[in-house]
Specification:
With 191 residues, the chain is α/β, with parallel strands linked by helices. Helices cover 40% and strands 21% of the residues. Strands 1, 2, 3, 4, 5 and 6 form a 6-stranded mixed β-sheet that branches. Helix 1 runs antiparallel to helix 4, helix 1 crosses helix 5 and helix 4 crosses helix 5. It starts with a strand and ends in a 12-residue tail after the last helix.
């Protein structure tokens, strides 16, 4: 397999593998819920604010901030645009902006780890920790450890397998997840 996956598919895969199936294989056009636009606006606002903020919230004295940095790795078979990266003399840190104040779910965490992995390759520096940030404050810091790296690589492998085989995956989504999903009308075995 030589194709590269957008990192946002990892988060969607964790939410429900069928979202990736419908989006990537079925190419379904759906109307996205209003919070998608709210999230885009939030990213834009946070980016502007972080351009003038210092790094004390990350317990860093110095570092260079990069916004909307495009990253791609042929080896890892992933690509995406990092919300923010902080490069210091000896390390690089992934920062993801999240609108929800309670967004430490598996998908957001693995998305953050995936960006950290790409940043390590891009900057040739270790990424010991990543940050989920909302409303100007750090919501969660996440160690970029071996277990999480393996989870990211496992998700990428599972997505590739699903795309090659073309078989609609099972869904473990809850009633609440299904109820707010833009693809609910295509899942005749849910609810």
């Amino acid at each position: 397999m030589s194709s590269s996956l957008p990192i946002n598919l990892i988060r969607q895969w964790c939410y429900c593998p069928r979202v990736v199936y419908y989006q990537e294989l079925m190419k379904l056009n759906v109307e996205y819920p209003p919070w998608v636009k709210q999230g885009e606006h939030f990213h834009y606002t946070e980016e502007k604010l972080w351009k003038r903020r210092n790094l004390s919230r990350f317990n860093l004295q110095t570092g260079k901030k990069y916004h909307n940095l495009f990253l791609k790795s042929a080896e890892l078979q992933m690509h995406g645009i990092s919300d923010m990266a902080i490069e210091t003399t000896d390390a690089v840190y992934a920062v993801e902006f999240k609108l929800s104040a309670n967004n430490k779910n598996r998908g957001s965490t693995l998305q953050l780890v995936a960006y950290a992995m790409l940043l390590e390759e891009h900057f040739k520096k270790p990424s010991p920790v990543g940050f989920l940030v909302g409303q100007g404050k750090i919501l969660h810091s996440t160690p970029i450890d071996a277990k999480r790296r393996e989870e990211v690589l496992g998700a990428v492998s599972d997505i590739h397998k699903m795309l090659i085989l073309g078989i609609k995956p099972d869904s473990g989504a809850s009633y609440t997840q299904c109820h707010i999903c833009e693809y609910i009308n295509f899942c005749n075995d849910r609810l």
